[in-house]
Amino acid sequence: MPDVRAEGVRDFLRATLDSLTSHVAVLDEDGTVLLTNAGWERFAAENGGGPTVGSDYLAVCDAATDDSYAAEAARGIRAILAGEILQAEVEYPCHAVDEQRWFRLRAVRHRALGPVRVVVQHDDITARRKAEEDARVRASVLDVADAAVVALDRSGRVTRWSDGAQRLYGWTADEVIDRPITDLLLGDVALEEIKAIMARIHQNGYHESRFEVMRKDGSTFPALVRDAAVYGTDGELTGVVGVSVDLSESVEAERQLREARDFSRAVTDSMGEGVCALDVDGLLVYMNPAAETMLGWTLEEAVGQPMHELIHCDGPGGGGGAAQECPLLVTRETGEVVRVEDDTFLRRDGTSFAVAYTAAPFETADGFRGSAYVFSDITQRKADRERLEHEVEALTWIPKIREALDEERFVLHAQPIVDLATGETVQHELLIRMNDPEGRLVPPGLFLPVAEEHGLIAEIDRWVIREAAELARRGHAIELNVSAESLAQTGLLEFVAGELRRTGADPALLVFELTETALLRSEQTAKAFIEGIAALGCHLALDDFGTGYGGFTYLKRFPVDYLKIDIEFVRDLPRDEASQHVVHAVVNLARDFGQKTVAEGVEDAETLAMLREFGVDYAQGYFLGRPAALADTIEAPAG
To answer: Is the C-alpha dihedral spanning 279, 281, 285, 290 positive or negative?
Structure first.
């Protein structure tokens, strides 16, 4: 009759072994595998086989003639079987399917009556090895840095002394470890001052001071010391890390400070990822402090809520699509790790931010299943990429603009300006365009901002002035824009005067349009230009009036002939009472100053009628006439 209790004990022991994350096998006195747990079997299956029940473990080790780790493991197990030692350990690398991993083999003699048994346990120590390697790298970085890095415990005793500190102060690490920092470096600095500095570090987490510090030989030098608090997992202060540099040579000190600052920033940034865990139903079960900060939820508030609905959306403004398509949830179904490089999460306040994250399924030893993900805010990274793309795009336009100037591929379009009292077109505003080498028209939004940013707009402005003078010579009333860059340069007035002499054009036919931004950039130069063109007989229009703070001042100080009401107040005029008040006020103001008003951006008959009602003098916009080539506007035959 079967011994039920014995079978129960065996089943219990087997289940216990299978629940372990370690890979476990039991060997007999000859090194033959008697028993393996589920972890051992799973690892063997995933990595191309290995010793199984009934196979000779020692023979497998011996067969790996080029593997010193296998030989070391075999020697240790044989020594245990011979009674020479009770246990042996070997750490060895294992090339898994997707990466190299490290394992620790621990063999222990089973202490009991009966035949000799050896329990062999393999544990994955990859994370520990990586952490140790990272620690070595960080230590190496500190040691090769020119700055001195010193770590103290909470009592002010030295716990870490970098090679840079030894070079700077002359003390070796063996000489200073566990000694008070005040005895070594600070000399005459009062104890009360030290206590006050420690209090500030504890309160603020950071402190920066300049001290006259000592070297081992007794000489002193000025040093900048930056201290940062180190906290334990309980939030209590456990010590201080200080970076100090010699200020005797300012150039060297500045370089060291930049390196220290960049290093500190890199370390801080690396600790900023958010971590969350979901259960099998997609409900949040854990969220780390970084995630709380980024998302605006505390763990207590968010736990138990569906993560997809709580924070996940496909783009700014929310949404998110179907939950079954969410990578945060799909990964638990597929069992695959998902890396998403650009997504959007929602904060508690409803705002959104760009993220990159990794989602992975997991299952605990007690059977709890879910998924975990690590995310980081990539808003700045995206902005930097977009800015860089913009700068690269701008750089490609610089040679195109220069070529267009050299090859005379700039062209002018004109938009009519209509007298609202008569319905007659009384002026045309000139608008710059560019033809590409194939003759296709390039809109100004693609090249004008680049020309303004990189100093090419002044040359374009002078080309427009030449063309405008020619049109005025033929009797056309012209309005043209002058950029802030051109206005800030000396010699512009002389250029205008020269073109008027060259062409013999009537200066009264030219209206120079300036913005408040252009006036602000170089007020003295602008004042000289405005007064100069007025003396020549040309006219001045103040563009975008009503949007800036200085417009009223310029009405008093400069001989302005036209006020151009900004499109912002014209576009919604029939529907917005505030815009109506602004337009009405500008008209009255212009009349008091003896000026004419021009409304920009007229799009419909209702707006046009209201402008007439308010007494606006002139208007332009798509409803009255779109910008078109000179041949179709100014130079079009009457008919």
So the answer is: positive
Return d(Cα 350, Cα 281) in angstroms, integer: 24
d(CA 276, CA 357): 11
Q: What does the angle CA 632 – CA 636 – CA 638 come to, to the nearest 5 degrees? A: 140
What is the pLDDT of the chain when averaged over all its residues?
Answer: 79
- In the three-class reduction of DSSP (H, G, I as helix; E, B as strand; rest coil), residue 637 is classed as coil
pLDDT in tens, 246-293: 777 654 545 554 564 455 334 333 446 888 888 877 788 888 888 888
Which domains are seen in the chain, by residue range?
4-124 (3.30.450.20), 144-270 (3.30.450.20), 274-377 (3.30.450.20), 409-632 (3.20.20.450)
Q: Which helix (H) or strand (E) holds 241?
A: strand 237-246
CB atoms within 10 A of CB 429: 22
* Residue 457 host element (H or E): helix 457-473
Closest CA to 494 of 455, 452, 525, 454: 525
Q: 3-class secondary structure for 336-404?
A: CCEEEEEEEEECCCCCEEEEEEEEEEEECCCCCEEEEEEEEECHHHHHHHHHHHHHHHHHHHHHHHHHH
Give the integer Cα–Cα distance in Å for 484 and 521: 7
Higher pLDDT, 446 or 587: 587
Other Cβ atoms closer than 10 A to 125: 16
Cβ contacts of residue 203 below 8 Å, gap of 6+?
Answer: none
* DSSP track, 108-161: EE--SSSS--EEEEEEE-HHHHHHHHHHHHHHHHHHHSSSEEEEEETTSBEEEE
Q: Which residue has the tokens 């002499």?
A: 501
